[in-house]
Amino acid sequence: MEKFKPEILLDQKKPYSHIAFIVLALVVTLIARIRNDVFRSAFDILTFFFILLVQLEAFIFIASRIFRELDSGITVKEFTRTVIRRFILFLVLCFFAALIIYLAFKYVAVWILGYDLSAVLSNFWNYDFSTWVKSTLGGLSFGAAIFLVIQWLDALKREQKLREENLVFQNETLKNQINPHFLFNSLNTISSLVQNQPDAAENFINHLSSFYRYILENGQKDKVPLQMEIDFITGFFNLHRIRDEEKILLDIRIDDTDSFQILPVSLQILVENAIKHNSATREKPLTIRVYIEESNIVVKNNLQKKASQLRSTKTGLRNLSERVRLITGRDLLIEETNEFFTVKIPLLK
């Protein structure tokens, strides 16, 4: 059995929605009948009920078209502006829809009763307009409640998506780093260094320990100080430098790190990506440059693709790109030429 959710009442594809509208229209009609002596006959009550029901259906239909789920990657400012614009449009459309529905039912009612159709508009403007405006404003208040509910549900979806993407990112980060290949290479390096270079082995172990400690302590955060991330990738690079000597070069040129924050482990993913997919020799070293350009931090490496390598699924970049979009509201910029591979990550204040 399908689990009942409150948002089903706003989904016109579900029968619960129409049943709820009928019940609500009946309740409002009953209250209006008790509090108002305007109804002269059962026909007036029935007309009021159907006008109200159709207006409710129209309000929900308009809301479902206007208040579609917003892009989860937009900024708070853009989100606010979009919501305000949609809300104003919703009220205007609902007001005119209510007017058209009311007049249409009035014409039908007058036609059924056999009265003069030419007097419908004049009677409306002269006698019914003020009452109609008051009741319509009441209906639009209900529409405003619909707006708040839909935006609340949308915000919950955005938050849930963000949590899910963060979990995926954390899982992929740990899975990519705590993998047999990485540990095998690290243990092999330690094994060879212990016999011949015990001081270098101790240094390597310290870097390796700091590497995993950083991931465990910061992997679940949305942002960390830029300097902390720079120190992290420097330590990570040292692991490779000890193992690969001068085949890989890391050139970090950043003067001001105190003013910025960044997604944790993001730079490491890009450095690891460059090392993973490019060959490096002493004659042709792999050079990875890290610097700030406008409001982005840039990771750029010379392109020296390995002659034989497994086809890349780009899962790491894809997950990082989605997380950047969700956290910063901006896109991860990726550029590839014949000579360089460049990735730009938006910085946070």
Determine Rg (CA atoms, Å).
32 Å
Distance between the termini: 48 Å
Mean model confidence by pLDDT: 77
Give the fraction of residues assigned to helices. 55-70%
Please count the helical segments: 9
Q: Could you tell me the number of beta strands?
A: 7
Return the CATH architecture of the largest domain: 2-Layer Sandwich
Integer tally of domains: 2
In short:
With 349 residues, this protein is of the alpha+beta class. It has nine helices and seven strands. It folds into two domains: 153 residues, no CATH class; 169 residues, 2-Layer Sandwich (Heat Shock Protein 90).
Describe this protein's structure.
This protein has 349 residues and is of the alpha+beta class. The protein folds into two domains: 6-158, no CATH class; 178-346, Heat Shock Protein 90. It contains nine helices and seven strands. It has a five-stranded mixed beta sheet, covered by helices on one side. Strands 1-3 form a two-stranded antiparallel ribbon. A hairpin with a 2-residue loop joins strand 4 and strand 5 (296-302). Helix 1 (15-35) crosses helix 2, helix 2 (42-66) runs parallel beside helix 4 and helix 7 (226-244) packs parallel to helix 8. The longest helix is centred in the middle third of the chain and has 58 residues, at 120-177. The radius of gyration is 32 Å and the shape is rod-shaped. 20% of the residues are buried. The mean pLDDT is 77.
